[in-house]
Amino acid sequence: MTQTALQSINDKIALNDGRFIPCVGFGTWEIRDEAQGDKIIDLAIEAGYRHMDTASLYHSEKSIGLAMERSCLERQDFFLTTKIWIDDMEPQAARRSLLRSLDNLKTSYVDLLLIHWPRRNYTDLDWPMRIAALWEEMLRMQDEGLTLSIGVANFLPHHLQALHTKRPAVDQIEWHVGYEQSEVVDYCRARGILVEAWAPLGRGSLLTDPNLMELSEVQGVSTAQLCLRYAVEQGVVPLPKSSNLQRMQDNADIFGFVLKDEVKEALKNWPLSAYSGEHPDKAIPMMEPDL
Ligand code: A2P
Question: Is 0.85 surpassed by the pTM of this model?
């Protein structure tokens, strides 16, 4: 389906492995199980989201499992992504991590399993060998049906090259207005790797940018809608987060308009802004302690 033909957040885009992914997902970083995260997932399901993006790091898997159970929808109505954290990159640890995630999510498979970061830290020089071995294990887990698709997150072109001829279905990167990582996107696009956007609203900080607010008025939509529609029109799958039903609905309501040429042009040339400071070779975030 082409970007302009997409009509709703659950319309699907083809992956390079023959499977399909809903064109907008719901981000669940910082939606913690311990803080009754399942209530937020209930709201996201009510707002229509079926594509849930989580990670072993996020502590939101149990919330998603509980909310899916309560929704009375079928497992196949959902698209679930989880990720292997940097401490679990050895093959056996990765397998244990996925099995734990499946247990938390109350399911026998995920739709997409990602390597969360390409390396453990700045001093980790063995990363090319490590991700090559991990990828082999991910292929085995895919063969066993524990995950339907496999991909990566926060991989730059030189990390993708370390997989040689192997082609991930997805690369999930920080991507938003003012930080489009065009080099990564172009590299992925040339190889049929779908780009997903974490922090598509710049973790909220883009939404108070007066210049962007002004541009949203030109388009006649909210600033969040402007950012998310831009992602979809660029062929990128945004994973917005919100704890509020109204804002979740606002973020899903991005299919009734097309960006004006002058707006698109302005967004393309937006100066660097809202960058998180995280970097796959230089600044990988640390694991949050278990509560
Ligand atoms: P809230 O949970 O109060 O809605 P990102 O997805 O880039 O990480 O951004 C998430 C942040 O953006 C959250 O702080 C969220 O706050 C805020 N947010 C999400 N959607 C909207 C919206 N439509 N309007 C205003 N703020 C939003």
Answer: yes
